[in-house]
Design brief:
Elements: E1 7-11, H1 42-58, E2 64-68, H2 77-88, E3 98-102, H3 109-118, E4 120-125, H4 130-133, H5 146-158, H6 162-165, E5 166-172, H7 179-188, E6 194-197, H8 217-231, H9 239-248, E7 265-268, E8 274-275, H10 301-305, H11 308-315, H12 322-325, H13 330-333, H14 355-371
Parallel strand pairs: 1-2, 1-7, 2-3, 3-4, 4-5, 5-6
Antiparallel strand pairs: 7-8
Helix pairs in contact: 1-2, 2-3, 8-14, 9-14
InterPro entries: Aldolase_TIM (IPR013785), rSAM (IPR007197), rSAM_sf (IPR058240), Sulphatase_maturase_rSAM (IPR023867)
Protein name: Radical SAM core domain-containing protein
Keywords: Iron, Iron-sulfur, Metal-binding, S-adenosyl-L-methionine
Length: about 375
């Protein structure tokens, strides 16, 4: 049976006003972004709206819609309005939540009023205080972006509908800096939810700050963050940990990279091309291409989802290496993101380059739960 669509990630703009050094699009192996239109055209927007509505009428479950980039606000107010309102005419907010991931620099009242009226939540990318953020998140001239992002968050928080609009912050881990400083700073910004990402890397190109496959710099940092989280009398929810807890209790995760459930994720590029998860771009040039090079202008999403190529792509989320298959933590770890398993010699047939970091933080969370008398899987 074909997988259903879980997440439609829409690349409204294929360029960015920031130039983050760890970016898997502009600093990675992939070069296809250079051939993409800078912004999604009106005809692609119309085709995309039509195909997503058709898919909503085809499958039983709702799905999430994520506006992404590049920087999604570079699409501009008029086109974003057409896209969002076109979707909202048929897709209600309960079954089809729309969210936007932004660096915050272009946030203004006009955008926020649109998002408020059409029920679009906003998450802002920021890695911590200025010291943490300036390590990688600079503009195209190499200047700090910190104040622009903070000002965007302030505008978001000052909106009359901020309680709905501000979904939270997304931070890439900088393991050389204290986790408590990052946690305290993000909390001081008023972030209602936090999520954290490992830096991109694989067995051929180790992530920044990781010295070897067996080292645990990221696991150590996450253990420190978990201590901050559990010792805070008024903690801000952290999705990364909450998913681990959920999985340890036998429930399902909520995103790719944790747990063993495959997710139906499709990327829609500015020219309308339908692709695999774009994080795969950090593996090799063209890693996110489907051989058929489908496009929303002439292809139904259901045809993609029912294809053997999509089934193969979706199931690559489940690790195939023997070390993962025999690991007691596989049901929680899920082998990590496929991009972390890559090497030119073995493809994706390997444990995550973060294997030992995953083991360390999952065991730490499990031990804490058991100390509280909670039975884990």
């Amino acid at each position: 049976m074909a997988l259903q669509l879980d997440t439609a990630l829409i690349k409204t703009a294929s360029r960015c006003n920031y130039d983050c050094s760890y970016c898997y699009v502009y600093q990675g192996k992939d070069t296809s972004w250079r051939d993409q239109p800078k912004r999604m055209s009106e005809d692609v927007i119309d085709s995309l709206i039509e195909q997503l509505i058709i898919q909503a009428n085809t499958q039983t479950a709702g799905f999430a819609i994520v506006l992404h980039g590049g920087e999604p606000l570079l699409l501009g107010l008029n086109k974003l309005t057409a896209l969002i309102r076109g979707l909202r005419q048929k897709l209600d907010p309960e079954r089809y939540p729309i969210s936007l991931q932004t660096n915050g620099a272009l946030i203004n009242k006009e955008f926020l009023d649109l998002f408020s009226s059409e029920k679009v939540s906003v998450s802002v990318s920021i890695d911590g205080d200025q010291g943490a953020n300036d390590i990688a998140r600079v503009d195209i001239k190499g200047n700090s972006t910190f104040s622009k992002t903070v000002n965007g968050i302030k505008a978001l928080r000052s909106h009359t509908d901020s309680e709905f609009l501000f979904a939270g912050t997304l931070s890439v881990i900088q393991p050389s800096l204290p986790a408590i400083k990052t946690y305290d700073f993000l909390k001081s910004l008023g972030s209602p939810n936090m999520d954290f990402l490992m830096q991109d890397g694989n067995h051929d190109r180790l992530p920044q700050g990781k010295s070897s496959f067996t080292s645990t710099e990221y696991g150590d940092w996450l253990c420190e963050l978990f201590e901050c989280y559990t010792s805070d009398p008024t903690p801000v929810p952290i999705r990364f940990f909450d998913d681990i807890v959920r999985l340890l209790l036998g429930d399902s995760g909520t995103k790719e990279g944790q747990g063993t459930d495959p997710y139906g994720i499709l990327i829609f590029e500015t020219d309308g091309e339908i692709r695999k998860n774009d994080t795969l771009r950090s593996s090799f040039d063209g890693a996110d291409f489907f051989t058929s090079r489908w496009n929303v202008r002439n292809t139904k999403i259901s045809d993609v989802l029912s294809s053997s190529e999509f089934a193969e792509y979706a199931h690559m989320q489940i690790p195939i290496c023997e070390a993962c298959k025999s690991c007691e933590l596989q049901s929680v770890c899920g082998g990590g993101m496929p991009l972390y398993r890559w090497s030119e010699d073995h493809g994706y047939d390997a444990p995550s380059v973060y294997c030992h970091d995953h083991i360390k933080i999952i065991r730490s969370v499990k031990e804490r739960l058991m100390l509280e008398g909670v039975e884990c899987v």
